[in-house]
Amino acid sequence: MSGFDLSGLLVVDITWQQLIMVAVGLGLMFLGIFKDYEPTLLIPIGFGCILGNLPVAENMTGPEGLFGILYEAGISNELFPLLIFLGVGAMLDLRPLLSQPIMIIMGAAAHLGIFATLIVALLLGFNLAESTAIGMIGAIDGPTVIYVNGKLEALFETPGLAAAIAVTAYSYMSLVPIIQPPLMRWFTTKKERSVRMEYTPRPVSKTTAIVFPVLLTIIAAVFLPEAAPLLATLFLGNLLKESGVVAGLAETARTAITNTATIFLGITIGSTMQAATFLNVGTLKVLILGLLAFALNTVGGLLFGKLVCALSGQKINPLVGAAAISAFPMSGRLAQKVALEDDNQNFILMHALGANAAGQVASVLAAGILLQLIFPILLP
Fold first, then answer.
1. Using CA atoms, how far apart are residues 165 and 146, in angstroms rounded to an integer?
2. What does residue 314 show for φ and ψ, rounded to 5 degrees?
3. How many domains does the chain have?
4. What is the DSSP string of 233-292?
5. Using omega within 30 degrees of 0 as the cis cutoff, is the peptide bond preceding 203 cis?
6. Which domain holds residue 84?
7. What is the pTM assigned to this prediction?
8. End-to-end CA distance of the chain, in Å?
9. pLDDT, tens digit, 9 for 90 and up, residues 100-135
């Protein structure tokens, strides 16, 4: 092929650190495709990680590149997390929660690990903004973590920490079926796991189901303005579902909008996992602290569940407390699965999903409370 110099095409300028990150990306895709661990998250994140560490990355991650544009369009301004919350709201059934108000307290108890991990992160040398974002990993709520990250990223001192926090949050979301069941078994007895719960919920009227999301959005806008965008999109999605008159909009929020935002968010977050800033001790600390926060939240929910179980005269299964984190609906289904191991006629799913819905709301409230508390300190 005279007239063409192809020698430049054969030069591959890639470091061993980048090769490690390419392998990490392949590993994430393997878990998503062949192990079915949250494939909607891990496949785009893994693919983005690979692209972000190839020689072509410089042309894609800059301000004019694909990932640069997506980052500015949907992550730095928190748009993608808000769109995902719109879809989550359209999937969420708050009726079990409204019929059993104790679930609200259970959701709060299952998020105490966020605050405990924040303190541990501060002791390890992370600044307040970084510690807050790290603690939020415990909610196992990727969009909320991204939202908090975006609000605080400018105050981070450690390069690449925002990417490490986001990836850790989504990675642990995919590992909920592996991490939670052992904790459920370790912190409860067989007798407690075998408690059967009667499901005779108080009826929740359509009016109540409609008024609740509107009322809570108004209250959040007044008292927790930093969390208002998250709660507003979450409850708008729920309102579309509960109104019963815009089924098409509710379906679009659940499917098209959520799936599109998840693809763009996942691949963009993956592209930020670049070797130069990702492979460091700080990332390892984030992974460990994120796991600590996740475990403490689950244990907090279980311990509160055990307390309620004892106070109720063995009428509430403490496994429901483990479902009160924000991994909806995975944790609720896992609580049911573990309950069936000891009694194949023990059906607690509706109770667990009620706690799961409470956890979804509680994670947003926790984020709003933290942002509301620390912003006056960080931005006097």
1. 8
2. 60, 40
3. 1
4. HHHHHHHHHHHSS-HHHHHHIIIIIHHHHHHHHHHHHHHT--HHHHSSHHHHHHHHHHHH
5. no
6. 15-378
7. 0.89
8. 66
9. 888 888 888 889 899 999 999 999 999 999 999 999
